[in-house]
Amino acid sequence: MSAYAELKRRRATIYNLEHLQGIATWDRMVNMPSRGSEVRAAAQGELEVLIQGLQTDPAIGDLLSAAGDERLEADDEANLGLMVREQKVARALPEALVRRRSELVGAASQAWGKAKAENDWPSFAEAFAPLVDCLRERADRLGEAMELAPYDALLDEHDRGLTLAAVQALFDPVRAWLPDLIRTVVARQARETVLQTQGPFPVEGQRRVGVAIMSLLGFDFDAGRLDVSAHPFMIGIPGDVRITTRYRESECFQSLVGIVHETGHALYQSNLPPAWRGQPLGEPASAAIHESQSLTFERQVAPSRAFAAQIAPILRAEFGDQPAFDPDNLFRLMTRVRPGAIRVEADEVTYPAHILLRTEIEPMILSGELPVADIPAWWGDRMQALLDIDVRGDDTRGALQDIQWSQGMFGYFPSYLQGAMIAAQLGAAFRQAHPDFPEQAARGAFGGLKTWLGDNVWRHGSRLTTDEIVRRATGRPLSADALKAHFESRYLEVAP
Ligand code: CO
Fold it and tell me: How many whole angstroms separate alpha carbon 372 and alpha carbon 132?
């Protein structure tokens, strides 16, 4: 067996174990009885050690250098390049650091839940400060191995080649035009009449509506599931993709929009190139590309009159008729713009402000320039300036609102705004190529969109970088222009 073939075999083994790890995580979030947490943590920890052992096996270094001398096809060459990269990352982090991080994440997660319930930043800070120190060390080591600045090394983990300078160049124009745009849209919408839906909406009914919409978008229920969890997520591999949502009986839009979002993630994940399953080349290109696929469905497709006309009969069949289910009203409901403190509840126009704030603060926290104790004060000032929202004194609506930091995730937030930009730019390119899409969508025909996304995004896996995917699909490098044009056409040009 060639060295490269042996590397592929080993990578496939890791992939299969990681798939089981993912299913165990899904089960923990969806099904596990509360007393199962201790034994599950032990079992998943054991599996994690096993996987890490395979990833850092010293024999891999020799195999990689031997494979470098073998004659390979172009795609295999690219796959080998990605293996080298994975190996660099795996070897950059000593086992003790990996273990310490997971312990500190455990403590910070627990402290976060409690601190959030009690609006108690200092008690979270006690658990978070040592985690930040650990993340700093981790970023330093990754940066050394990848020859990158520490924060860039964290960005690079989610999107290879991405730097803070590049993110700032992308986001700076948004910072300039967003405040005026928000003010104009809010003023314009103040003149519109919108009917709120009248609940209650029983959970079973909402679930049936969700399933109907997923089917409409082409989700394959023979290769995936929809379940309930406290925080919605998508997990899985082609052939078995699971998404989750959460329901409130008082209204049905939160779950509905969440389901459309996760369905977009699921369609991408399910359609990664099958020939490369188990290999780095068959993985998603980046967090930003993944998010762009969920946002293509959530923000490009769903908030349209054509889509509203599709879901109106589904809602009426399940919950009976009511004036709010009129398609024009559904469209207005899905496009309400109102500045608020909470990122995950934000509409698409004010959402970028939440990411600008996090993209500014994270590098300062990581470098130590902003001490953990001073985060709430900085957050309050910045939120006031960006959205004119006062959260001072209420950190549950400020720096305590996100789960990401307590999980040790730094460098991830920018991908949400990049994803929105990519979705807007892909959406514009797709509509240019398929001007009849609104008529197709009004008939519930999403095959054309899925074929286009499949050709331009899904089938590439990790073969291309984020940047290369966007350039090839749209003929231009990524910029904020398409997002701005999308906002203007949806919120300022069309008659209310
Ligand atoms: Co998402």
Answer: 8
Cβ partners under 8 Å of residue 190, min gap 6:
none
Distance 291 CA to ligand 1 centre (A): 5
For 381, counting Cβ atoms within 10 Å of its Cβ (0-12 exposed, 13-18 middle, 19+ buried), the class is: exposed
pLDDT digits (tens, 9 = 90+) for 112-142: 999 999 999 999 999 999 999 999 999 999 9
> pTM (2 decimals)?
0.96
Dihedral, 221, 225, 231, 235 alpha carbons, nearest 10: -90
Six-digit token string for 262: 């996760």
Please identify which residue in the block is written with the tokens 């790890």: 21
- Quote the ligand 1 centre to 4 CA distance (angstroms): 34
Query: Where does the pLDDT of residue 443 fall: very low under 50, low under 70, confident under 90, or very high at 90 and above?
Result: confident
Q: Which of 326, 447, 412 is nearest to 135 (CA)?
A: 412
Helix, strand, coil % in the chain, rounded to nearest 5: 70, 5, 25
Best CA proximity match to 262, nearest among 250, 282, 246:
246
DSSP string, 265-278: HHHHHHTS-GGGTT
d(CA 209, ligand 1 centre) in Å:
20
Distance CA 25, CA 41 (A): 10
Residue 453: alpha-carbon gap to chain centroid: 17
Active-site residue identified among 103, 204, 262, 468? 262
Question: Is-contact 117 401, C-beta < 8 A?
Answer: no
Can you give the pLDDT at residue 496?
A: 46
pLDDT band at residue 495 using 50, 70 and 90 as cut-offs: low
Rounded to an integer, what distance in angstroms lies between the CA atom of residue 94 and that of residue 99? 9
In the reported structure, the alpha carbon of residue 74 is separated from the centroid of ligand 1 by a whole-number distance in angstroms of 32
Helix (H, G, I), strand (E, B) or coil at 227: strand
Contact 235, 25 (CB under 8 A): yes
Q: How far is the CA of 89 from the centre of ligand 1 (A)?
A: 24
Q: What is the pLDDT of residues 31-47, one digit of tens each?
A: 999 899 889 988 998 99
262 counts as catalytic: yes
How far does the centroid of ligand 1 lie from the alpha carbon of residue 58, in Å? 36
Per-residue pLDDT reduced to its tens digit, 95-107: 899 889 988 998 9
Rounded Cα distance between 61 and 77, Å, is: 16
Please tell me the distance between residue 9's alpha carbon and the centre of ligand 1 in angstroms. Answer: 31
Mean pLDDT of 241-246: 97
The helix (run of H) or strand (run of E) holding residue 234 is strand 234-237
